[in-house]
Amino acid sequence: MSGFDFSGRDSFGSRLGVVAAAAGSAVGLGNIWRFPYILGENGGGAFLIIYLVIMFAIGIPVMMSELVIGRRSQRNPVGAFRVLAPGKPWYLVGMMGIISAFMILAFYTAVAGWTLEYLYQTLTGGFSGKNSTELTAMFDSFRSESLRPALWFSVFMIATSAIVLGGVRKGIEKSTKIMMPLLFILLLVMCIKSLTLPGAGKGLEFLFKPDFSKITGTTVLMALGQVFFSLSIGMGTIITYGSYIQKDNNLAGTSVQVSLIDTAVAVLAGIAIFPAVFAFGISPSSGEALTFIVLPGIFQQMPGGMIFAFMFFLLLALAALTSTISVLEVIVAYFSEQLGLTRRKAIILATISMFVLGITASLSLGLTGRVKLFGLNTFDLFNTTTANILLPLGGLLIVIFLGWFFPGKDVKDELTNAGSLKARYYSLYRFIVRYVAPIAITIVFLNGIGLLKI
Ligand code: PHE
After folding, report:
1. Is the CB of 229 under 6 A from ligand 1?
2. For residue 31, what is the DSSP state?
3. 132/134 Cα distance (integer angstroms)
4. Ligand 1: which atom is nearest the Cα of residue 319?
5. Whole-angstrom Cα distance, residue 451 to residue 218?
């Protein structure tokens, strides 16, 4: 049989469980909070088209590659490269993934904490009667406070650790199988509500009508970064989940399903948000505040708005939770397999380190807001550096590894389950992994950071 066997490892129990967990990782704040504001700031419809092209041409092949690496090696990202390329420095790609995991978890859990604050505000009527200036002030003063964001961060971190403590099958798989369908239903209700608002057409036009004059090198880099962030690829989350997938799973099919779900949720989030934004005459390029300032403003002008606000922030919190568990799992798998800790000890160590790092990031808008690196506070630094630099770079190295430094027949073996599946797409996949993805990621990257002008 193909691959390495480390028996005694936990694994996902069913195909549905694999899709729920991987889609749970992919679908998150990236789709509902980040995608709409990045799209709003980068030209709307034209951004969407570039996003979709990158998703299919690069995102899906990179996801397949990570699953191949994970299932073949049965290891965390660092261990995977150590097993597949012994004695070579490729494991550093895995190390980079662990660093990204820390950085993502730090700012991501902070935003997830804000969703809990807003859930609480919805229940206690905190934003009733406030206009958009007051809502902005409320958001800014909340973020610059020291205690509350740190408190919500801690609550969220503990919830994440508790699920991971339950294990892969009984914690992650079981919880995502419940949370993901709930999330989908909540999102559909939000879309229907938004589409029935007067003037919804303008929002749809913004989302779907491309204006290519808005496209620059930075737009394409933002789209690339968003695809990587949204699919959870380029840092080993999918390698880690891949290592828990059983041998009879069709990895290509799983990648396509997960990517389609992820894209559908991003587009549905756009449909839920932009018609409402336009119906209430707000600028679509309000940035990262879009979700937290614009939407509460809109909710309270709607009949029954507080119910929708509650649903919306619950949706965000659930989506975030199914993603934070996947990031924590990367660190836990690394600590337990590479450092030889028990899973429980690994979780405690990972959680404590996250508290230290995450609370710094969460405070970065308040107390430590003056501490800046490259003109960015810790929060923005982690957000931008991971999506636009570390993840695409990780993805680039992953495809170069699989395309050029790993036996093609082993990759094929993994994608066809040792010959029992037909993989008619294989030559196309191979061509993308060897040529298209490395060249495209390099060009977009150099162009986006201004080192290349096209
Ligand atoms: N994909 C998640 C989202 O879109 C974020 C994430 C990134 C999760 C990287 C894991 C790894 O919200």
Report:
1. yes
2. I
3. 5
4. 12
5. 12
